[in-house]
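[retry 2/3] Protein-glutamate methylesterase/protein-glutamine glutaminase: previous attempt timed out, resubmitting with same input.
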Amino acid sequence: MTPIRALVVDDSAAIRAVLTRILSVDPEIEVVGQAPEPNTARQMIKDLEPDVITLDVEMPGMDGLSFLERIMRLRPMPVVMCSTLTAHGAAVTIEALRLGAVDCIAKPKGSAEELARNGALLRATVKAAARSAVRPSRSARPPVVATTTGKAREDAVIAIGSSTGGVEALFALLGAMPVDCPPILIVQHMPGAFTGSFADRLDRECRIHVQEARDGMTLAMGNAYIAPGGEQHMELVGAAGSSIRVRPGELTSGHRPSVDVLFRSVATRRGPAAVGAILTGMGSDGAEGLLAMRRAGARTFGQSRESCVVYGMPRAAMELGAVDKEMTLSAMPEAILAACGMRQARVGA
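[retry 2/3] Protein-glutamate methylesterase/protein-glutamine glutaminase: success.
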């Protein structure tokens, strides 16, 4: 098997060395070059033709976002952003993911155990990025719902799980939701320092209210709740399944928060009143939970291969028999709203 050719771009020589060492442990990855800034990286891309780039968010000369935008416009290719876990770094990383970066990772640091764990994640992310379906950057705004003449059933709730490529997908999907849509619960795999910034950015650009979930929140129509990343799971709780619990817990399906944990709680609390959607992402988190939802009578949808950045989670759910219907991302808002009872929803520009 031909190794994946990776180019490491970072202004810190120490970080370049650490990333190179981490990636080179895997025989399936070959680091073909290191670049300290975008101009050097641009020439190395031409000369070395890497399969994947790891890109620092903040660099001298040309910042990472400007360089990424140029890459995705002129020569689309898999890019993994390498960010510091700061409020500014998180906001910039969210914009990078929206511009078309496949995924983001935190810059490696900490104990030997943390470095080993982060290293394994970095290698898996780079390999997933190399297999991803990268598309040119889209500057157009996501579609919005033009009209919704049907009314959702009062006990309806929407549960969504996503990972690699999910940031861009969620901007499109939530951007198409009307202000009177049912409550939406979302698990998107990303570092805990990023989920607050992600929710804030979605809230500014969507007509619904989007926020990072907190323990004890009560569900409300026209609201979306993003599970906080890091050390906790998000569940639907209460006799009527009307509130959110955010709790510590062990990794489930390799993740925390886990889509499976969310979906299983929704299956238990809302059953046939729920709608589940599994979006782009690597791995299989969410497949078992979506099957539980389907068995409880919920409608379940999976993002189609051709519209996924990484067709991993939806494929696992399809193979398990958890998906009622697979469809493109652009068709999903209308299908979800119809399943909630808003049967005359029309999605337009």
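[retry 2/3] Protein-glutamate methylesterase/protein-glutamine glutaminase: Confidence is low (pLDDT under 50) at residues 344-349.
[retry 2/3] clearing retry counter.
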